[in-house]
Every structure is written in C-alpha cells, then in structure tokens.
Amino acid sequence: MLYSYEITLLILCPLIFLSSFIDSIAGGGGLISLPAYIFAGLPVHMASGTNKFTASFGTATAVGNYFKGGSIDFPAAIPGSIAALIGSLIGTNLALSLSPRTLQICLMVILPLAGIFIFVNKNIEPDSKRAPGIRAKIIIAAFIGLICGCYDGFFGPGTGTFITLALSGLIHLDLLKSAGTARLINFSSGLAAMVTWLINGKILFPVAIPCVICSMAGAFFGSRMALKVGKRLIRIVLIIVVALLFVKILSDLLTL
User: Fold this and answer.
1) Domain range holding 248?
2) Full pLDDT tens readout for the chain, 256 residues
3) Listed residue (194, 157, 160) closest to 180, CA to CA
4) Cα–Cα nearest to 145, from 66, 71, 86, 59
5) What does DSSP assign to residue 169?
6) Which pLDDT value is given to residue 217?
C-alpha cells in the first residue's frame, strides 16, 4: 500500500533527481529510481511503468544538452535508436506477460550478470585507430540497440551504462560522445517501453508528474556537468554505478 501522497513524494523526489543526474552522465539511474518507486509502495509493474515515464523525460532533457554540445554520433545513434525501439517493445511485452513474483525472480538473475558486465568493462579505453567503417558502425550500433533495448524494456537499470560501454568498446567512440549517443539510443528504447506501459495502464500519474520535474532537473544538471568536466567525470560515475549495482545485489540476496 502506498504511503500518504506527501510522504511518497518526499521519498521519491530527491531520489529521482539523483537517479536522473547519474543516468544522464553514465546510465544506471534506474538502479536508484526503480527501487525507490517500489520502496514508496508501488507494485512492481506500476513501479516499472512509472519509472519509464519519468525517466523518458529526463533522458530527453539530457539528449538536448548533448546535442547542443556536439556529443552525439548520429551514424551510430540513428540505427541504434531504431533497433532499440524494436528491442524495447519485445522486452516490455515479455515483462508484461510475467507475474510480479516471476519478474522479481528474473531480476535476481539479471542483476549479477549486469554487475559482472559493468565491472569487467569499467576501464575500457577507446581506440580511434580501430574504429569501424561506416557500414560496420551502423551494423554494430543496430546490434547494440536491439540487445540493450530488449533489456531496457524487460528490466531497465544499467541500460544506459551498457550502451555507453558498448559504444566505447565496439565502435571506439570517446567516452563523452559515447555518453551522448547512448542517451539518444536509451531515449528511444525508454520511449517504446513507456508507451507500452501507458497503454496497459501501468503509470501512476499523481506520482509520475511531480517526479518528471525532478527527473528533468537532474538530467539537465548532470549532462551539463558531463559536458563541462568530460570523460574523467563519466569514469567516476561509471564506478559509482558499479558500486550501487553490487549493493543492490547484496541487499536482495540478504533479504531472500
């Protein structure tokens, strides 16, 4: 059962701001926002839908800042975004077909795998000399978008981090451009998931609307800071995301 409306917003608003701030820099904001909605008393499916709704507005704000800063690689972003849209629809419909209990069990399987992926790749260094040609870039970006979009639709937390690392590791974009490009791809997958949750009535608007404002504010300041400080900040936030992910895993394991 939900707490009172005021207490619910008191819990959520600062956490949503923080999650969007982190997500706009290196992804992984869902590691904070999704548990926050659940902690506030929303059922799993309603929490997922409301989270996607608010996060989409935050991601759109970050995309705007990265676009103005010239930190989006469109040859990678466009095919990646189209594929992410398709993947997200597949993942979201899969999530809707599962019971909340089954979804929680699946999350416990996904989280350790996500943690291992981020931990192993957190120090990845881009190499411009190994950057693929335009055709290969399009194919690789589409593959990244499809896989990460499916994951985003099904679960979500860590998606932006995965995309950022994949763009840096496979396409050899620098971390700042990887972060900006990842936000656009992530926006596409998040938008598709949001529409699916919306159609199925899984968004709690009295909670979602105030949280949208916090999400947009967090994304605005986070992306502005990333553009100002650059890859050094992105690397630091990636490590923080890894730590948050493992804390989440440990917490879930201890409460089983």
Assistant:
1) 5-255
2) 455 777 788 889 999 999 999 999 888 888 888 888 988 888 888 888 899 899 999 999 999 999 999 999 999 999 999 999 999 888 878 777 776 566 666 666 665 665 666 566 555 555 556 678 889 999 999 999 999 998 887 777 778 888 988 898 889 888 889 999 999 999 998 888 888 888 889 899 999 999 999 999 999 999 999 898 877 777 777 677 766 666 665 665 566 5
3) 160
4) 86
5) I
6) 97
Number of domains in the chain: 1
Secondary structure of residue 20 in the 3-state scheme? helix
**What is the CB neighbour count within 10 angstroms for residue 170?**
20
Alpha helices in the chain (DSSP H): 5-26, 30-39, 44-68, 74-96, 100-121, 134-154, 159-166, 175-199, 205-229, 231-255
Query: Do 92 and 237 meet the contact criterion of CB atoms below 8 Å apart?
Result: no
Q: How far is CA 38 from CA 1, 2, 42, 44, 129, in A?
A: 10, 9, 5, 6, 45
Q: Which two tokens stand for residue 38?
A: 């659940």
| Count of other CB atoms within 10 angstroms of residue 1 | 4
N-to-C CA span, the chain:
21
Measured CA to CA, the distance from residue 240 to residue 96 in angstroms comes to 30
Q: Name, in order, each residue with C-beta under 8 angstroms of 226's C-beta and a sequence gap of 6 or more.
A: 24, 25, 176, 179, 233, 234
Buried b (16+ CB within 10 A) or exposed e, 137-164: bbebbbbbbbbbbbbbbbbbbbbbbbbb
